[in-house]
Amino acid sequence: MALSKRGIFGETARGLIQQLAEYGRLMRLDRPIGILLLLWPTLWALWIAGEGHPDEAIFAVFVLGVIVMRSAGCVVNDLADRRFDPHVERTRDRPLAVGTVSVLEALCLFAGLMLIAFGLVLTQNRLTVTLAFAGAFLAATYPFLKRFTSLPQLYLGAAFGWGVPMAFAAQTSTLPQTAWLMFLIVVVWAIIYDTMYAMVDREDDLKLGLRSTAILFDHADRFIIGVLQLIFFAGLMLLSQIAGLGKWYWVGLVGAAIAAVYQQYLIRDRDPALCFRAFLNNNALGAAVFAGIALDYLFRAT
To answer: Which of 68, 85, 86, 147 satisfies CB 3.0 to 4.6 Å to 91 for a cystine?
Structure first.
């Protein structure tokens, strides 16, 4: 009897662990690129708003908030796309698509994550809390835009960039010009990398009647991405003047520019696998910009 109970307990534990792993896959914790792409501009903003020394508590809240909100965004995205994902090569093995997580479980998980995010933001000032409501709306509604507009990547940019004014609000209790310039820079950056991402699924999206900038730009995609990259770097150069960033920041921009050129090389033939690599390479670009900001303040202080 004891052995039988241990066996039942072990089977239950294994089942629970397996289901938790499926929740982790639904939140894309096994693919942290989305967390990183959301984290880098948040860190840019925290470091500039805090003049190289962001408040430790605010830093912790925002890092945790990035993880939680990106996870919630993935859950609501898969809920919105659950009827499309089984027909797309890249997404057909997602938990909702294969039925390892139910719609009710996903809804409960999304609600739980949003409650955690709300609890985190309540530790901040009133302006930050107010901005958080707009951020939550952007994150929850973005997945549905691809049905109605050819520019869902623009909306994603607003969702991913919203952490920038929130970071300034938390750190300084204000929304200066620098915050909105950085917000626009991040919007442009998101259009760039999410268009590369959409290039991976272009053929499947066309069959399903979904929309994206990759479809909208068609054969001009590489050229338009190149123009957007120039606008992105022009914004970052303007930021150096407004925020008073020096030579180390420019070293970071050189590293970011090398990453951008490499991305153009990867997407040259529009091969889906290489387009996905170009998308992933934006992590290096974001890290280079942050390294430049952090080093500039570090050596300025010494």
So the answer is: 85
